[in-house]
Amino acid sequence: MANGIVASLLLLFLFAASAFAGSDVPFIVAQKKATLKRIKPDVERISVSIDIYNQGTTTVYDVSLNDVSWPQDSFVVSGNLSVSWEKLDAGSVLSHSYELEAKEKGVFQGSPALITYRIPTQAALLEAYSTPLLPLDILAVRPAESKLNLVHANCEY
């Protein structure tokens, strides 16, 4: 009896998996990256880039990116935090970049960016989220490292 139930569940799972594998669906993956660059001792720029990948088998339309995780009282924004594209073909990538300048020192963790898109078979917009950022220690005191110390530390004797 138990073997019959397990076999039935296994067949149901295989049927559902094969039906899903045969359909045309988008699969949106978005990666958000940030790098810190010290301009002056009291000025640090954050370069943010977001890559949106369509790993699915169908084109998506009306793609919009919205990244509102940067408070205006803490950052000066250079560039657009929201952008739209007409479409993203299957297997393709879209990229967007902008820069921020920190107004204050501290640790900041950026939340995921929101991506909305539409597929031809549905009227409603679908949503995807980018990866979040790891905590950024903005304007942190970092010890100056000598290039000779770095070479010495990486050499084997």
Automatic annotation (TrEMBL):
Keywords: Signal. The keyword Chaperone does not apply. GO terms for cellular component: endoplasmic reticulum. This is Translocon-associated protein subunit beta. It comes from Kalanchoe fedtschenkoi. Residues 1-21 form the signal peptide. The lineage of its organism: Eukaryota, Viridiplantae, Streptophyta, Embryophyta, Tracheophyta. Pfam families: TRAP_beta (PF05753). It comes from the Eukaryota.
